Amino acid sequence: MSKLISVLLPDLRGGGVERIRIVLAHEFSRVGHDVEFVLMKARGELLHEAKASFPVIDLATHRARGMPLALARYLRHRRPDTLLAAMWPLSVIAPVATRLSGHRCEVVVSEHNTLSVQYRDWGRLHRGLMRASMALGYRLADHRLGVSTGVVEDIARMSGLGSDAFDMVHNPVPPRSAPAPEAIEAAEALWDGPSGARVVTVGSMKAQKNHSLLLRAFARLDRPDARLMFVGDGKGRDELASLARELGVADRVILAGFHPDPKPFYQTADLFALSSNYEGFGNVIVEAMACGTPVVSTDCPSGPGEILDGGKFGRLVPVGDVEAMGSAIAATLDEPAPSEQLKVRAADFHPAKAAKAYLDLLGV
Hints:
The protein has two domains: 4-169, Rossmann fold (3-Layer(aba) Sandwich), CATH 3.40.50.2000; 181-348, Rossmann fold (3-Layer(aba) Sandwich), CATH 3.40.50. 45% of the residues are buried. The chain starts with a strand and ends with a helix. The protein contains 16 helices and 13 strands. By secondary structure, the chain is of the alpha/beta class. Helix 10 (237-246) links the parallel strand 9 (227-231) and strand 10. The strands form two sheets. Strands 3-2-1-4-5-6-7 form a seven-stranded parallel sheet, with helices on both faces. The longest helix is centred in the middle third of the chain and has 17 residues, at 124-140. Helices cover 43% and strands 16% of the residues.
């Protein structure tokens, strides 16, 4: 039987969680369900893409404290069968708003990061309020999900609920269509150098990604032909450019900016590197593997180690270790993993599998 599934998000900026929700929406639609996006603010790089396929509801709410009443009004009006809420605090607001609305629908909340690490510098008061809200909100939800074993363990510990109160569903990572020849040519032009030692990373330029560590590791490579490309944008761009000049590698570092489809960069690179301090999952690792691109990643508390199966499919290095990252990059450039092996592993995270796991929870 067809269901109306409402997908709640802060907005549709070009981030991993937002992309994941669009992917899942297409899978739900493909098997016959109606989907609409409900946003605190209708804005972001992916807004146009979502509007092309799904209704988008703008709650026009600037602050989280206004969300319970705004969301309750929406629920009374639209009466969806299922509400999917991602990312704290929306993951704890959604179950409360459902009670306020008087409309009973299944509420599925999911977290996509290790929240204890993400918010560890916000102070004791914030941590206490966060734990209390999770303890209440999660209990009111019908289903609670984490995108990796590490995330489940983290939010179970923070909320005071047992791990058995949560389900783990890995992020869906869709196979992308082959890039147009023009897109490959544009990527080649940006590399502006020979292949053989091209290192790419994809992600927003924020502190979590620790791009400065990757840049310092790159500067240690004894490869004058090496190039390092950052695909993504954010507040850290200027600082990264300054550091590249300070390290004397600015002529071999490319700041490519945000691209909605990074596949041309994966395909023209020789290695993908992730230098994050923490991750909930790490979609970009799967995307790179799907292109047959070898991977080096920090061994975050959750995500990369699970995707790479403890190092079977790519080298893992300690978080924050510049020397280990540089050594792993050099070793992988010299001895890359077989492309076909990486592509087979990437297929384990096909969107159809994640969508089925959600729908199985809902009994549809």
